[in-house]
Amino acid sequence: MPPSRALKKPEPTMADLIESGRHSFEAKRYKQASRFFSRAMKICPCARGVKSGRPKCKCKRYERVAAREGSIYREARDHCRCVAGKKYSECDNFHHFQALDFQSTTFEAMGRFYQAMVYAEWMLELAPQLPDGYLRMGRIARLLCKYEYAWKIYTAGIEANKETAAGSSAKLQKLYDGQKLFNRFSFKRDPFCLPAELVAHVFSYLSYQEIIVCFRVCKPWQRALTSPLHGQLWRNMIFKESMYSFGKSIMMPRLDLLRKMLLWAGDGGARKIVIPRYYKITQPALTLLLKASPRLEHLDIHMPQRELTLPSNEKMWDRLRSVSIEGRFEQTPVDVPGGFPQMFLQNAASTLEHLTLLSIPEEWYNSVPSIPLLPKLKSLRMRGWDYKTTPFPIYPLSVAFPRLEQLSLASLSNLSLEPVTIWRKEWENIWPHLKVLMFQSSITRVEDPRTYSTLRYLASLNSLQYIHFKFGFRFAQDTEQYPNIFGGNHDPLTDSGIFPQLHLQNLRCLRSERLWISPDRARTLLSNAIKNKRLTSFDIVFPKDINGRVTADDSVRHLKGYDWLRGNPTIHTLGCEDFSFSFDLEGEEGRLLPQFLATFPNLRRLTITSRYYGCTQITQLIIEILKVTHLETIKTEYIGNDDFLRMKEAARSKGTKIYWRSGQDPPIWPIRLE
To answer: Is 662 exposed, middle or buried, given 0-12, 13-18 or 19+ CB atoms closer than 10 A?
Structure first.
């Protein structure tokens, strides 16, 4: 009898292959599971017998559509235009859809997210109305950290099911939950959809280099940013230094790019030009910037020695209000390359209001100085060289700048009042509008007594509202201290009756860093300002004794001498410097300073430093002060990490901010007066 023919094993169905794939997936045999799911998709009827199976659509680009603010749902719903749509019919086989879902899950488990996204997109192609594809794509987009894309996918799924209530399906509810999770991305919009004023405000925070980088986003952005509508973005030519450029030369933009930028700025060219020290600018580039900007209002430039010059024969800048120039003018004649641009400033005299000179021309030291006449100048800031022995005359400045309101002198340690006879005749007419007087010297000792006489005279001007004197740092062992500019030491000029007494009836702020004032003299000086309820800021600097030492008894005596200032309601800013009290804050003497500060009901800002306190002692003192005051800010010297954490915690509980005091912090100029 012939052997019976073996029965032929039946081919597995799509359901069988999917079930086998699921078992392999649960056993974490992901590659085997992927092969089962792939076989299931290939035997779907929609493949029409092609062994490789039905291909995925290649003409739909969901992420690109989303980036262009298009509809992902419409992209999925529209008919396919590639081979997949022309050769193969639509497929509504549930097993095909299920195999795609499991295949995407398998690749996700293997960490192959981009391949997982391919199969998730295929799910969307087959069933754009179902939430499954959107959920799968959204999950993978989140794993790829494409959170905005994930939000747009969830939003597209909600759009596809907008006729269905959210609570009718658990999967639909997941779409709403996913969208809510990333709702912050719904506020991202193309900034050029906003009003032009808001667009200008947004891009005003960027430098010209950063704006040019924005050209790469797309052509519409480039056209918009260079259109006349946004010309104001190019009117501030501020060439910023980066943290990596310190000490290194930075090249300016090419001339052709500068011409384009000035063209984009529109009529009048740039309104503000700032060229810092480390920018390497050529004379042609500087000339182009200036001559193409007849409506220039602000110029800030560093002029290297013997290299650059500003136009001296042009009178085209009839709106120039502010100029800041840095160079080495004491070594170079005026109006030559690298020299002081005197004629340039003189030609702008009719409009110039603010001038900063970070180097003083040698000609200004002469007996008949050559200073441009600037009748409308309101603020003048000058920095010289501390070790220059030639006295700098002040009177010629009052002639050249008669309407000056703010004057700052730095590194000018030899000032002169000569000629004294003219001061005696004209003192009532000298700077009648001066409101701000600042003087700063970095050297430890100013030898020339004429400097103190000059400062005392300038401080006697009755229009002053803000006085700030700052002298160089002295070591604790230095037995000498600075003279009391406001009285207490014999001055043959200012104490002789030639000059007026100090009344200071309009004074709001008196800062005297490292320069002490006796309590009795301060009471006399400030009596009018206190009577007029104007005084808001004051520094108390504690002195040394006759042997150059600082003792607790001296500090106690000095502070008690200011009892007349206690409780003043107009004081909101105080400074306390170089005191030495008992470190025992439980004792009466140790609590003197906190108790004194607690009497000021409106005290909001405090600067507190002492060379005689360590980090731990100053921290304990500040914590004690915080307990009895309601300060907004405290400035102090740098404190070690552990002590800082204790202080920071105490300050946080009181709503107070702690700042490190730095002698290098440049003041805001001009000073903003109340």
So the answer is: exposed
What 8-state DSSP symbol labels residue 489? S
- Encode pLDDT of 501-559 as tens digits: 677 889 999 998 878 888 998 998 899 999 999 999 999 999 876 666 678 888 999 99
* pLDDT of residue 479 exceeding 50: no
Torsion sign, CA atoms 636, 639, 643, 646: positive
Q: Hunting for tokens 């860093």 — which residue is that?
A: 513
Q: Which residues, other chains included, contact 133 with Cβ-Cβ below 8 Å and sequence gap of 6+?
A: 76, 120, 121, 123, 124, 126, 127, 157
pLDDT value at position 476? 45
Q: Helix H segments across 301-368?
A: 342-347
Structure tokens at 1: 């009898």
Give residue-wise pLDDT tens across range 401-433. 999 999 999 988 788 877 766 666 677 778 999
Domains of the chain in start order, with CATH, are 14-187 (1.25.40.10), 536-674 (3.80.10.10)
Contact 136, 120 (CB under 8 A): yes
Write out the H or E segment, with its range, that includes residue 398. helix 395-400
- Cα separation, 506 vs 673, whole angstroms: 12
In this predicted structure, the answer to whether residue 607 has a pLDDT above a threshold of 90 is: yes
Strands (E), 44-105: none
Cis peptide leading into residue 670 (ω within 30°): yes
Omega cis (within 30) before 419: yes
Residue 603 tokens, joined: 């005290």
CA end-to-end distance (rounded Å), the chain:
120
Determine the Cα–Cα distance for residues 527 and 524; give it in Å rounded to an integer. 5
Instruction: Using the structure block, give the residue that is written with the tokens 């939003």.
Output: 155
What residue type is 659 in one-letter code?
Y
* 3-class SS of residue 222: helix
Which of these, 600, 494, 613, 602, lies nearest to 542 by C-alpha position? Answer: 613
**Closest to 340 (Cα-Cα) out of 288, 384, 394, 296:** 384
CA distance 293 to 270: 5
The position carrying tokens 């900034």 is 191
Q: What is the reported pLDDT for 516? A: 83
Q: Could you please report the per-residue DSSP string of 360-376? A: --GGGGSSS------TT
Nearest 10 degrees: Cα torsion 537, 538, 539, 542: -150
Q: How far are the Cα atoms of 476, 624, 647 from residue 650, in angstroms, in the given order? A: 30, 9, 5
303 vs 341: CA distance, rounded Å:
10
What are the pLDDT digits (tens) for 214-258?
998 888 889 999 999 999 999 999 887 665 455 567 788 899 999
| Averaged pLDDT for residues 187-201 | 79
Q: Which DSSP letter does residue 433 get?
A: T
Give the pLDDT band (50/70/90) at residue 325. Answer: very high
